[in-house]
Task: structure prediction
Amino acid sequence: MQPTDEFLDQALIVARAAADAATAVIRRYYRGGFDVEIKADETPVTVADRAAEAAIKQVLRAAYPDHAYYGEEEGREGDSDWLWLIDPIDGTKSFVRGYPFFSTQIALRWRDELVLGVSCASEYGELVWARRGGGAWLAGERLQVSAAADFTAQTAISFGNVKTLSRDARWQALARMVQRCGRTRGYGDFLHYHLLARGCIDLVVESDLNILDIAPLVVILREAGAVVTDLDGNAPDLATTSLLAGPPALQARALAEFRAALES
Result:
């Protein structure tokens, strides 16, 4: 089956229902009443993460029993051209501390292409979604990135996790971008991607993430007019660990400056 517009529209309805199911679980646990475990990668996990992932899969599997699934807590299951990518609580560190900078991330990948994404920040109060060719949407409003094309006093950029970036030559290139910008922020997690898609900020830079963190946001940003690559200029795939996203001209300028720093 090809990812037709009709199929993707229906899949988007299902994905939003799955995000609603996760929200119902998350709200039962938010602000306490659970134990926190530390996984092998030193990140936290709770019963809410696991229960929310189960709730998402229950909804998706009822509609698409033959699809494959790749979840943050249970790993990859099944073999299909269609792969659902699920992070039930992206931002568990925020969740366990009781502040609302976490989200549920659900994406659909067909073969090598991300074609649908839902980013549900339930406690923050934002639900953003997109499907290939259908635009990116928030509360009935179609989203569009800014027209920023250079680093000026009007440019705003945001950083997520940049520990790895701080160790290589691109760190100084980033410093030069910062010096030319009017505003720098570190919104992190879902928030700076939502703001980028809305045209409120102009560039997002992250060097330490995984595809489950950002798969739906890749679709959302592309449909809002952004260019999205990793820090080396490659299209996001299942092995992606970094991201550079922004309006086409600004993203290209940032990528060129990063590459020049590595070559100097």
